[in-house]
């Protein structure tokens, strides 16, 4: 994958599995994430990108998690004003958005139900 086109906003090491160091992010996700980052003007801190099955199980991820296929990221967000600003942009680009007190999950996994906003 050509990571240079996502500079200066993203680096491959932000998306690696914290367990095994593997990175298999889908280009579709990175394109949408890049567009959202440029439009928002807000730096994204990636909490979780690609996950191997072992790490996904360890963190309590769903058995069919989009993280397992490289279609998802969790972005740190603990401020309600920032959450509002990010949600406005994410809803333009992503058909699947999950909300947690500590992060916002976005994914573009075509194998999962679309037009979803869910809570953790």
Structural write-up:
This protein has 120 residues and is an alpha+beta fold. It is built from 3 helices and 5 strands; from the N terminus they run αβαβαβββ. Strands 1-2-4-3-5 form a 5-stranded mixed β-sheet, with helices on one face. A hairpin with a 3-residue loop joins strand 3 (96-99) and strand 4 (103-107).
| Overall pLDDT confidence | 96
Order of helices and strands: HEHEHEEE
Q: Note the total helix count.
A: 3
Shape: globular
How does the major sheet shape up? Answer: 5 strands, mixed
What's the helical proportion of residues?
25-40%
Secondary structure elements and their pairing?
Blueprint: H1 27-40, E1 46-48, H2 53-58, E2 72-76, H3 80-93, E3 96-99, E4 103-107, E5 116-119
Parallel strand pairs: 3-5
Antiparallel strand pairs: 1-2, 2-4, 3-4
Helix pairs in contact: 1-3
Quick structural summary:
The protein is built from three helices and five strands; from the N terminus they run αβαβαβββ. The chain is α+β, with helices and mostly antiparallel strands and 120 residues long. Strands 1-2-4-3-5 form a five-stranded mixed beta sheet, with helices on one face.
Keywords for this entry:
alpha+beta; 120 residues; 28% helix; globular
């Amino acid at each position: 994958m050509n990571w240079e086109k996502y500079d200066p906003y993203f680096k491959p090491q932000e998306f690696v599995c914290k367990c095994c160091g593997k990175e298999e992010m889908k280009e579709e996700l990175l394109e949408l994430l890049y567009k959202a980052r440029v439009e928002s003007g807000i730096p994204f801190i990636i909490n979780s990108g690609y996950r191997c099955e072992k790490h996904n199980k360890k963190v309590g991820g769903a058995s069919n998690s989009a993280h397992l296929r490289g279609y998802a990221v969790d972005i740190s967000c603990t401020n309600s004003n920032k959450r509002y600003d990010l949600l406005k942009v994410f809803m333009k680009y992503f058909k699947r958005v999950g909300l947690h007190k500590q992060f916002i999950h976005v994914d573009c996994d075509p194998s999962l139900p679309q037009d979803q906003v869910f809570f953790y």
